[in-house]
Amino acid sequence: xxxxxxxxxxxxxxxxxxxxxxxxxxxxxxxxxxxxxxxxxxxxxxxxxxxxxxxxxxxxxxxxxxxxxxxxxxxxxxxxxxxxxxxxxxxxxxxxxxxxxxxxxxxxxxxxxxxxxxxxxxxxxxxxxxxxxxxxxxxxxxxxxxxxxxxxxxxxxxxxxxxxxxxxxxxxxxxxxxxxxxxxxxxxxx
Length: 190
Prior knowledge:
With 190 residues, this protein is an alpha/beta fold. It has a domain at 27-103 and 138-181: Beta-carbonic Anhydrase, Chain A, CATH 3.40.1050.10. The protein has helices spanning 2-15, 42-49, 73-84, 105-114, 119-127, 132-136, 142-154; strands at 32-37, 57-62, 89-95, 164-170, 177-181. Strands 2-1-3-4-5 form a five-stranded mixed beta sheet, with helices on both faces.
């Protein structure tokens, strides 16, 4: 099991005090929250391509860097970072060749059934008002998806006006980043 290898490595990491190189506090040095995809190709590439060091940002992830509802857990995390951890910028970073652009909710439901989820469970969820198609549909272009997430964040009624929100797209092969939209810092003076 991979978890056993990871735990054995962790014991050596702690015993050798390798954590000392990463000591920092909980306030992000760059006063930024990055919301990105859970894509495994970005684990090291994204921070290195943007010169992000340990302690520089708060990193929030989900499948596709998608926010569809203004009070989902991602948005709550962003608001906590702004109000409790002094974040002043939010950057949404999508990526090319994202698996969420290929998700077919009907096919996903078929896979759920193949893996032992009962049709009755899916029916119960549907009757409870949970639309699995809405919950799991992907997107056509990563740029449009980034703009959708940025727009939800920017227009959130609880986001202070001084917080800037940006949208970027990264190439998971080269690390090249393109700007989709840059936020404008509002003056705090009346």
